[in-house]
């Protein structure tokens, strides 16, 4: 019987980085995830020293564990050199700032191979991720699993190949529940979760799993469509989440909400309460 996961939320910075840890603590979050710039734009303005200091102080005072999510536009393996250069520069800058912010890790998506196949982009993708590691000294780099939409990179096997190739202790993995279901993993049953944990352990190594994204899914098992929903209101559902958050493979890990929120304003106290109310399922 491991300890339960630690639940948290993605929170908007709203240009006020120093208030993030307090706003996270106010809704009951034990961990927090932020973007350090516009997730859908390349222009990057690094936070001021004052904002960084305020953020660090807030995390220390509240005990909230911080994570950063890298911008969405990145594609480290693409044959488009201009896009690849921008992606690597964005990751390096994010990793550098993440060190200054004192965050545990930087979660990143991996982009698309655009039909050329994963093997054709693996070298370039890993070189790009290495450049991000080289720009930092402390923060973890956490590639995230994909929902399997289009030609996106991020299956369990692909994550394993990337982690193996990088061979760096600062490389971990982020798993997103909505992406897992959409990619065809039955995460709503103990048997399905046991199979996932075994597959992940063989391909990546369970000790590499450092953070989870806890999102219900508007789309069903194997849909390959990425649409997040509030906890309990989607295809994973309350019973499915109860199995997930109590599975021993995830004990003690931070789990971050990226849900629409009951009021449509992002992760909220209500979704955190729903996670904490999930009862441990009876053993079958
Ligand atoms: Zn993500």
UniProtKB/TrEMBL annotation:
Residues binding Zn(2+) 2, per UniProt: 144, 176, 213, 258
Residue intervals of the Xylose isomerase-like TIM barrel domain: 23-263
Gene Ontology biological process terms, A to Z: base-excision repair
Highest taxon in the source lineage: Bacteria
Cofactor note: Binds 3 Zn(2+) ions.
The keyword rRNA-binding belongs to this UniProt entry's keyword annotation: no
InterPro entries: AP_endonuc_2, AP_endonuc_F2_Zn_BS, Xyl_isomerase-like_sf, Xyl_isomerase-like_TIM-brl
Reaction equation(s) it catalyzes: Endonucleolytic cleavage to 5'-phosphooligonucleotide end-products
Pfam families per record: AP_endonuc_2
Sites where the protein binds Zn(2+) 1: 69, 109, 144
Chain sites annotated for binding Zn(2+) 3: 179, 226, 228
Enzyme type, top EC level: hydrolase
GO molecular function, one term: phosphoric diester hydrolase activity
EC number: 3.1.21.2
Keywords of this entry: DNA damage, DNA repair, Endonuclease, Hydrolase, Metal-binding, Nuclease, Zinc
Cofactor: Zn(2+)
Ribosomal protein found in the keyword field: no
HAMAP family (UniProt xref): Nfo
Protein family (similarity comment): Belongs to the AP endonuclease 2 family.
Function summary: Endonuclease IV plays a role in DNA repair. It cleaves phosphodiester bonds at apurinic or apyrimidinic (AP) sites, generating a 3'-hydroxyl group and a 5'-terminal sugar phosphate.
Protein name according to UniProt: Probable endonuclease 4
